[in-house]
Design brief:
The complex is a heterodimer of chains A (235) and B (385).
Chain A: E1 4-15, E2 18-30, E3 35-39, H1 46-53, E4 61-66, E5 69-70, H2 76-86, E6 87-90, H3 102-107, H4 117-130, H5 146-158, E7 164-168, H6 176-191, E8 195-199, E9 211-216, E10 219-225
Helix pairs in contact in A: 4-5
Chain B: H1 3-13, H2 19-52, E1 57-61, E2 85-86, E3 102-115, E4 118-125, H3 127-133, E5 139-141, E6 149-152, H4 154-160, E7 167-170, E8 173-181, E9 191-195, H5 196-202, E10 208-209, E11 211-216, H6 223-233, E12 237-241, H7 244-285, H8 287-295, H9 300-337, H10 348-374, H11 378-382
The chains are: A alpha/beta (235), B alpha+beta (385).
C-alpha cells in the first residue's frame, strides 16, 4: 500500500448551467519520502488536487487514502483532526496571522492540542531554528521579509511533525535567490525523510523533485520519476 | 499558545476594532444600571421620608361594632358615642423596647358640634405635636396660640363662610378663627381644629382621647415590630400601621421601575444588534484567517470557541465599564429627582448583574456570527488554494 493512494478521483464544479471538470479519473500513488512536484498550466486541476489532498474540498467521486485512512469517509471534525495530525500546509501567500509573532504563528497548529505551554514553545523554537529564523521569533509578520515569512510558514507546517507537507507555489512571490534558498530548505527536509507534495508552475523547481507529474485538463499528462526507487506509479 | 491566547493577542494588537461592540453593550448596561440604581435610591428615599415624617402608626379604641376612623378610614357618623382611650395610658408607649424610635405621639379627641345649621367635626389636638407631624399643613393666617383660637379646614371655612379673625360660638363657647388650612384634599379639610384640653372640656371628655397618631422613626426595624410592641403595652386598644401613603408612593415607584425596565430592554436590544453587526463584520473580515485556522486543523468547535471567547471577554469588559458609567450617571441624575441627599452605594450584586447581563447579551448576539464562522468553507476562505 502506497502512502498516498488516489483512485479514480473526479471533481466537477457546477455553477448554474455550467459544469467544469477539474479532475478526471485521476489515479496516482505516492510512496513515503517522495518529493513530488505537480506541474501544469493554470486550469489543469493542480490546485484542486492539492485542496483535495489537504482534506479541504470533497471530491465528486473517487477515493483518497493517506496512510490507509480514507480521509473523505471521516466526519467534518475528524477531518480537521486529520489535517492537524497528518498535514502541514505551506501556502503561496504565506497566510500568516498578522497579529501573532513568528513564534506564535508557528505554534498555531499546537494551539488546539493538549500539550504543556513549555513543550509547545520548545517545539516551535526548535522548528524556527531548523528554518534559520531563531533570531526573528518575536517579530510580527509585517516586520519580516518575504523569504522570512515563507520560512515561518514552513516552520508552522513542520511544527506538528506531520507525515505529509503540502506546498502551493511556495516560491511564487519570492525573488529567484530567495526561491533557491527555500527550495534548498524543502530538499533538506525531504532528505531527512519528509514526504512533500508541491504544486508549482516554475520549471526551475523541477530539479529538486524526486518525481514530477504534469496535469492537463484534470488528468495525468506526464509522470517522470527521477529517482525511480521510492516511486511507484500505477495509472 | 492556546485558543485563549490567540484571542488575547487579537484583542491586544487590534484594539480599535472592538470599540463599537464595547460601546454598544456599554450603553445598554449603563442604562440598566442607572435605572435600577435610581429606582433603588428613590425607594430608599421614600422609606427614609416615611420614617422621618408623618404618622405611620394609628392607635384607635378597641371596638367590635363600630369603626372610628381618620386618615382614609371613615368615622361611622360623628354622633356615635364611642369608647375612648384613656390619655394616661399613652405614657405606657414610652416604655416599649423601641421607645427611642418614637418621634411623636399625637393624641386627638373628636366630636360633632352644631354651628348654626351645620354639624361639623371638631378635633382637639396637641398643637405642637400635630403641626410638627403634619408638615404638609399650611395655614392661611396664624396657628393656634390661645385656648380660644381655632383653625378651620378649607371645606368647613367655605361652607360656614369663615375668614381669619371671625368669631364662632361652639357649645356656648366663643372662639376666634386664627387661621384657615389650605386645601389638603384629605379629611382634614372637613375639620375644625382646636387645642386638646379645650375640646376635651367642651365635649366633656376630660382625660380621654379618640385616637392617637404615632410617628415611629425606625430605619432598621420593621414598623410591624413597633405596632406589636405598642399593642403589648396597650392591650385595650387597636394599633395599626398606616400603609396607604407608602403604598401610593411605592406604586408610583413601581410604575417608574416598570417603565425603566421597558426602556432598558429596548436599549439592551439595540446593544445586542450592535454586537451582532460588529461580530458579523468581524467574522467576514477574518474569513481568510478562519480559513487558515481550519486548514491547520482547527475544528469547527474551535472556531466557535475562538469567536465566543472573544465576545465574552469584550462583554465582561463592557459590563464592568457599563456598571461604572451607570453609577456615575445615577450620581449625576439623583439630585435632580429628590431634594434629599440619598446615599448611593456601590452594590456588588448590581455589578455582578451588569456583567452577567453583558455576558449573556454579548454571547447570544455573537452566537450566530460564531456559527457562521465555523461553517465557512475553508477553500472559499483561503481562495489561494
Amino acid at each position: 500500500m502506497a502512502f498516498i493512494e488516489i483512485e479514480k478521483l473526479n471533481k466537477t464544479y457546477s455553477s448554474d448551467a455550467d459544469k467544469v471538470v477539474a479532475l478526471r479519473d485521476l489515479t496516482i500513488r505516492v510512496e513515503e519520502g517522495t518529493f513530488l512536484g505537480v506541474m501544469g498550466p493554470s486550469g489543469s486541476g493542480k490546485s484542486t488536487l492539492l485542496s483535495i489532498l489537504g482534506g479541504l474540498s470533497h471530491p465528486t467521486a473517487g477515493r483518497l487514502c493517506v496512510d490507509d485512512i480514507d480521509i473523505y469517509a471521516l466526519s467534518g471534525e475528524k477531518l480537521a483532526d486529520f489535517r492537524r495530525e497528518y498535514l502541514g500546509f505551506v501556502f503561496q501567500s504565506f497566510n500568516l496571522i498578522p497579529y501573532l509573532t513568528a513564534l506564535e504563528n508557528v505554534m498555531l497548529p499546537l494551539a488546539v492540542k493538549r500539550l504543556p505551554a513549555k513543550e509547545k514553545r520548545r517545539l516551535a523554537n526548535e522548528v524556527l531554528n531548523r528554518v534559520g529564523l531563531k533570531s526573528r521569533a518575536d517579530h510580527l509578520p509585517s516586520q519580516l521579509s518575504g523569504g522570512e515569512q515563507e520560512r515561518v510558514a514552513i516552520a508552522r507546517a513542520l511544527v506538528n511533525a506531520p507525515p505529509l507537507i503540502l506546498a502551493d507555489e511556495p516560491t511564487g512571490s519570492l525573488d529567484s535567490a530567495t526561491s533557491l534558498e527555500i527550495m534548498d530548505l524543502f530538499k533538506n527536509l525531504n532528505r531527512e525523510g519528509q514526504t512533500i507534495v508541491m504544486v508549482t508552475h516554475n520549471a526551475e523547481n523541477v530539479p529538486y523533485f524526486d518525481r514530477t507529474i504534469s496535469l492537463r485538463d484534470g488528468s495525468v499528462d506526464d509522470d517522470t520519476a527521477l529517482t525511480p526507487q521510492p516511486v511507484a506509479y500505477a495509472g | 499558545m492556546n485558543l485563549e491566547s490567540i484571542v488575547w493577542n487579537n484583542l491586544k494588537r487590534r484594539k480599535s476594532r472592538m470599540v463599537f461592540l464595547i460601546a454598544g453593550l456599554l450603553i445598554g448596561v449603563a442604562t440598566v444600571v442607572t435605572l435600577i440604581s435610581l429606582s433603588n435610591a428613590l425607594t430608599a428615599d421614600v422609606q427614609h421620608k416615611m420614617e422621618n415624617y408623618g404618622a405611620n402608626i394609628l392607635i384607635t379604641p378597641k371596638s367590635d361594632d363600630l369603626s372610628l376612623s381618620y386618615g382614609g378610614i371613615t368615622l361611622g357618623g360623628v354622633s356615635v358615642d364611642s369608647r375612648e382611650i384613656r390619655q394616661d395610658d399613652l405614657k405606657k408607649i414610652g416604655t416599649i423596647p423601641n421607645s427611642r424610635n418614637i418621634a411623636a405621639v399625637a393624641p386627638k379627641v373628636l366630636g360633632a358640634v352644631q354651628v348654626g345649621t351645620e354639624r361639623v367635626m371638631l378635633m382637639g389636638v396637641d398643637i405642637n405635636k400635630e403641626f410638627h407631624l403634619k408638615k404638609w399643613w399650611t395655614i392661611n393666617g396664624e396657628t393656634i396660640r390661645e385656648a380660644d383660637q381655632l383653625v378651620a379646614g378649607e371645606a368647613v371655612a367655605t361652607v360656614l363662610g369663615l375668614k381669619v379673625g371671625d368669631q364662632l360660638t361652639l357649645l356656648d363657647q366663643q372662639f376666634t378663627v386664627s387661621g384657615i388650612l389650605n386645601k389638603t384634599s384629605s379629611q382634614d379639610d372637613q375639620l375644625l381644629i382646636a387645642s386638646l384640653p379645650v375640646v376635651q372640656q367642651l365635649l366633656n371628655k376630660q382625660g380621654r382621647v379618640s385616637l392617637v397618631e404615632v410617628a415611629a422613626l425606625c430605619s432598621d426595624c420593621p414598623v410591624t415590630d413597633m405596632v406589636n410592641q405598642i399593642s403589648a403595652a396597650l392591650p385595650d386598644v387597636e394599633v395599626g400601621a398606616i400603609q396607604q401613603v407608602v403604598k401610593t408612593r411605592m406604586h408610583a415607584l413601581d410604575q417608574f421601575r416598570t417603565f425603566s425596565l421597558a426602556i432598558a430592554a429596548i436599549v439592551i436590544l439595540i446593544g445586542a444588534l450592535v454586537v451582532f453587526v460588529t461580530m458579523m463584520s468581524a467574522v467576514n473580515e477574518r474569513t481568510r484567517e478562519i480559513g487558515i485556522f481550519r486548514a491547520l486543523g482547527f475544528r469547527r468547535s474551535h472556531i466557535m470557541r475562538l469567536i465566543l471567547v472573544e465576545s465574552s471577554l469584550l462583554s465582561l469588559l463592557s459590563g464592568f465599564l457599563g456598571f461604572v458609567v451607570g453609577m456615575g450617571a445615577t450620581r449625576m441624575i439623583l439630585p435632580l429627582m429628590t431634594e434629599n441627599h440619598v446615599a448611593l452605594h456601590w452594590s456588588l450584586p448590581l455589578a455582578a448583574l451588569a456583567m452577567l447581563l453583558a455576558l449573556v447579551v454579548g454571547c447570544l448576539a455573537s452566537f450566530y456570527p460564531a456559527l457562521h464562522a465555523s461553517r465557512l468553507d475553508p477553500t472559499e476562505a483561503l481562495r489561494a488554494l
